[in-house]
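Checklist before submission:
- one chain only
- standard amino acids only
- sequence pasted in full

Submission:
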Amino acid sequence: MKRLWILLIPCSIFARVFLISDLNFNSRSSGLRNSDFALVSHYANPLSNPAFLALNSKTYFSSTYFNHFEDINSGSLSFAYPDLLVNGTSTAFSLSAVDYGSFSDIETGYEYNPYDVMLTVSQGLMYRNILLGANLKYVYSSITSEYSSGGFIVDVGSLYRFYDGRMSLGAGLFDVGFQTDKYYESSEEIDFHLRTGISYELEKMPLKMCFQYDYYFSELSRYAIGLELDAKKNLTVRAGYDFSGTEKEIGANDKIEKFGGLSLGTSILIDAFGFDFSYIINGELDAEFCATLEMQIPEIFK
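Returned file contents:
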């Protein structure tokens, strides 16, 4: 795929450096349009909020594939193990990557294959009635062998549950970090942000509602809502809406623009396995698809 050289830089495609740290490699999250910061799930998702690991007591493995715009793809492998560092809580390890496709320099014809890789260690902790958690990330971003950068990033999240666990409030500081290597001689600021959320589970109906607000200090903030319905014992359906979806309208006045910001998803649980799927509508931009496979390791070997 031939494009101008400037589009080689991942932060030009996705607006800033090390954006992989801000991606949520989980189909349930994308089905809720990333509004699940305060919504506890069947399997903990530390990239959304590491405080979930303070509740999780399962040994599980998950694998996610995400198809983004054009030929940009990403994926993640994650493994969580309880009582490894702190009794009663879990530790998780994740390996994530983004492939930005192929690019050609229009002057030399040289082909580039930029990518990002991220290694994450996550830990949960319970303090009185407050769930706490942290992610420690090492990120490596490569355009070519000569044009690459690395960095360390930390996320800290918290969650407080009340009303018999039916309501949760969450807050955290994400993407706090620094570059260890510069792109050539140019350093980039890592855009940290404040993440907050609230969720509520209805008492007489298997419906959960959630809201998330992310305040960025150097760019536009985002807020999103989500609904999740347990349709059957092993079937869950969900939908989410990102209010920044209107920014993806380009004035074509097509019907698809009216649905920009919407996402749909479902989960199917079969014994020790969980299958999550989501479809994300971006108006005139390409739609995205995400799929996650989860496995409870001890249940498989019973």
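Reviewer check: Helices lie at 10-14, 27-31, 297-300.
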